[in-house]
């Protein structure tokens, strides 16, 4: 497998559509420009634009009512030329009216049912499965329990990738991270004697800690860390830097060492908490909904894998790579989505063996963007939209949509990106010139992302310029 470009990219619920539309145009004229993380791919995939400052990040709110629906023939006319650019290679795509009833044929499509190598748009499916399965306000708990000796404790991983050794008031890349200092303070309050040994318990998850289909250099390149249920800062050496630095090869050990340092303990060992032992200290991750948003905005691979395993645990499936993939697929199928052709080897899209159709991506996004007719519906899928990066404004789209053709999409396109060697994708929502909210999903396979990604931006920007009624 060739070297991969950097990824900058409780009971089960019935599917509920959500009351979400996007105030795109109004956001362009906000008083303060909010700059997201200026992330960019390595290996010649571009630098931040200097001609265009970051745009304001538009908030979600109502679009004008009664906006006309584009004519499918008009969409075909508008998209024919840009969709046939050779730089896109094999292209699968779909455009859907966000207000259409579920199951309504798309307004435009090309090979929408063809399974494609998706890259990080896979996270949209992981996000949907998590929001359909988990309580969005739940937090993932990291616990400390008494150890086998009076002067020992066991640090028990609960699958939270945000746990940090940073002190209060200092932010990591994660919102509201759980803190080692808080755990240590609780332990000291509960145990009136010195602690000399910290055991680390990573038994919550099973199976290999790296997916077999991932590249051998993915940890060193900063794409991922070994997936254990206990880790510190997602395995980052600098918890304030999202990507680009080699990740830890033993994130559980790092977490144990951090707690040991905070407690004045001298040893860190692997171990397991005795069954039924009550915790003496516990800290929680950000809420599931916040984890989903951050995962999509920053395209965080570690969070995606952690959420897939939480879905597996909730659905009583083995919390491994295979179990997480099965749980995500089952959650989507149970919610009524057509998962024919869906192949998942992970929850992040880092695997080149994943296969997803743009039809499925479009269906999930259309549900997230639909208007619910039931005012009592909880907006389960809303974090998918609020977590989408904004073209030219934040996340993995901060430095895209910069050429003369795609610049029209800045601030009005919200989309999840995907990049692997030979695969590029873009899927999200866009407001057209009449204020109609459209859902789109595009996947390109077989060409260099350096060539394909600008053309995907052009396609989305074309939708933003299109009334397409002729």
From TrEMBL:
Q: Which GO terms describe its molecular function?
A: serine-type carboxypeptidase activity
Give GO terms for biological process.
peptidoglycan metabolic process; proteolysis
Signal peptide coordinates = none
Biased-composition ranges, Polar residues, are 242-251
Q: Where is this region: Disordered?
A: 226-254, 267-286
- Keyword field: Carboxypeptidase, Hydrolase, Protease
The record, for Pfam families, names: Peptidase_S13
Lineage: superkingdom: Bacteria
Matches recorded under InterPro entries:
Beta-lactam/transpept-like, Peptidase_S13
Give the matching Gene3D superfamilies: D-Ala-D-Ala carboxypeptidase C, peptidase S13, DD-peptidase/beta-lactamase superfamily
**Do you know which NCBIfam families this protein is assigned to?**
PBP4
Q: Which family does it belong to?
A: Belongs to the peptidase S13 family.
Q: What is this protein called?
A: D-alanyl-D-alanine carboxypeptidase/D-alanyl-D-alanine-endopeptidase (Penicillin-binding protein 4)
Q: Which organism is it from?
A: Pseudonocardia endophytica
């Amino acid at each position: 497998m060739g070297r991969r470009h950097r990824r900058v990219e409780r009971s089960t619920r019935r599917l509920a559509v959500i009351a979400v539309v996007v105030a795109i145009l109004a956001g362009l004229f906000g008083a303060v420009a909010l700059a997201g993380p200026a992330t960019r791919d390595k290996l010649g995939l571009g630098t931040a634009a200097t001609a265009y400052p970051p745009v304001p990040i538009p908030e979600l709110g109502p679009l004008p009512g009664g906006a006309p629906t584009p004519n499918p023939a008009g969409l075909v006319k508008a998209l024919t030329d840009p969709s046939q650019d050779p730089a896109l290679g094999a292209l699968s795509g779909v455009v859907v009216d966000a207000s259409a009833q579920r199951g309504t044929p798309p307004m435009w499509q090309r090979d929408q049912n063809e399974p494609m190598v998706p890259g990080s748009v896979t996270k949209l499916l992981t996000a949907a499965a998590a929001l359909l399965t988990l309580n969005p306000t739940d937090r993932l708990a990291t616990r400390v329990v008494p150890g086998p000796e009076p002067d020992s404790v066991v640090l028990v991983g609960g699958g939270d990738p945000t746990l940090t050794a940073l002190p209060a008031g200092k932010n990591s890349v994660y919102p509201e991270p759980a803190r080692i200092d808080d755990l240590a303070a609780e332990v000291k309050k509960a145990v009136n004697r010195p602690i000399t040994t910290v055991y680390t318990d990573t038994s919550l998850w099973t199976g290999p800690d790296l997916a077999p289909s991932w590249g051998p250099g993915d940890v060193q390149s900063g794409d991922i860390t070994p997936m254990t249920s206990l880790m510190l800062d997602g395995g980052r050496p600098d918890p304030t830097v999202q990507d680009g630095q080699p990740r830890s090869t033993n994130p559980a050990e790092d977490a144990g060492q951090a707690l040991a340092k905070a407690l004045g303990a001298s040893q860190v060992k692997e171990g397991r908490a005795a069954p039924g032992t009550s915790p003496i200290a516990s800290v929680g991750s950000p809420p599931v909904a916040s984890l989903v948003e951050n995962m999509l905005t920053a395209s965080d691979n570690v969070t995606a894998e952690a959420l897939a395993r939480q879905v597996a645990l909730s659905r009583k499936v083995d919390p491994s790579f295979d179990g997480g993939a099965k749980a995500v697929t089952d959650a989507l199928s149970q919610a009524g989505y057509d998962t024919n052709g869906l192949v998942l080897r992970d929850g992040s899209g880092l695997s080149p063996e994943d296969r997803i159709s743009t039809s499925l991506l479009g269906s999930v996004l259309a549900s997230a963007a639909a208007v619910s007719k039931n005012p009592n519906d909880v907006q389960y899928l809303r974090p998918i939209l609020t977590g989408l990066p904004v073209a030219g404004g934040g996340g993995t789209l901060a430095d895209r949509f910069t050429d003369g053709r795609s610049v029209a999409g800045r601030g009005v396109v919200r989309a999840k990106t995907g990049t692997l060697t030979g695969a590029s994708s873009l899927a999200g929502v866009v407001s057209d010139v009449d204020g109609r909210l459209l859902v789109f999903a595009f996947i390109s396979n077989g060409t260099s992302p350096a060539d394909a990604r600008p053309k995907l931006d052009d396609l989305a920007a074309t939708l933003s310029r299109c009334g397409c009624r002729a």
